[in-house]
What does this fold into?
Amino acid sequence: MELQLTIGDKFKKLWKYYLLQSLLAACILTILVVILGQEKMVLISAMGATAFIVFAMPTTVSARRRNVVGGHIVGLASGAIFYFTALPYFLEYPLAVGIAIFLMVALDVEHPPAAGTALAVVINEVSYDAFITITIGAVVLSQCRHYLKPYLRDLV
It folds into this structure.
């Protein structure tokens, strides 16, 4: 029978990883924010949740490259579809998220923050910049996980 570690015991055991992985996430997001600029913050907000999954839960299915990149592409597409509809916002926004969830599950690219991407796109804008912003962010975070995987631990 495995003993459940208390919060204090877990922190004492993994504190270096907590610090390292949190700083890595902050550094990568800083680079993305500086490159993309303040006007893209609604779009980049989903990358914060992706950074959490990639750096705090690197061995989970939703942290895999296929899920991170594929999930965000599905979120982008779903948000774009509903951005161009003439539906009222109280239908548009939840439908964009619902369709994104459906497609992620159906295509086996589940990545929870990508539902936020669908919402950000339908609220904010559909543009070439939006697609590039989200895609580059997802690829950068996925590549960081890939190359740093030997140094990362599951923290949750």
Summary: The mean pLDDT is 89. The radius of gyration is 17 Å.
